[in-house]
Design a protein that fits this description.
alpha/beta, Rossmann fold, 21% strand, globular
């Protein structure tokens, strides 16, 4: 049913992604899917970047990739069915670019409960749902 699943995650908030990781793992076990864990690192403003070491971005990408691999190891699926990707840019643009590049047929993601600010500004989850070329499963934590 689903052969390629993308799960946007923030390794600094593993508890937030727990539901989406569990759901993706269940789909992968049931359908033999490949799960792509994707983390998007924000572009640093030039003023901030000039105070960081020249290889800061590479270090951040490498560190994030290692954290994603640790998360992938907890999925309980074969190692060749768990892929990690670290991208740099705007969250929803990069997630959607990843989805299109790998021809994913499902995005599984966690989302916070909506607040007034998301009604006015929109959230990354809402933008992904609105523009995704495939099915999207959005999971919210239970109260």
């Amino acid at each position: 049913m689903f052969s390629t699943i993308v799960v946007p995650v923030d390794p600094s908030e593993p508890e937030f992604s727990k539901l989406s990781l569990e759901a993706a793992s269940d789909f992968a076990k049931r359908y033999g899917s490949t799960v792509h864990l994707v983390c998007v690192l924000q572009v640093l403003p030039g003023l901030v970047a000039e105070y960081l070491p020249p290889d800061y971005e590479r270090q951040a990408v490498d560190s994030t990739r290692a954290k994603l691999k640790e998360l992938a190891d907890t999925l309980g699926i074969p190692a060749d069915k768990a892929v990690v990707s670290v991208r740099v840019g705007g969250v929803y643009h990069e997630v959607l670019d990843e989805v299109e590049e790998i021809k994913a047929d499902l995005i599984v993601m966690s989302s916070h409960r909506p607040a007034m600010s998301t009604y006015l500004l929109g959230s990354n989850a809402a933008k992904i749902v609105r523009h995704a070329p495939c099915s999207v499963l959005v999971l919210r934590p239970q109260d």
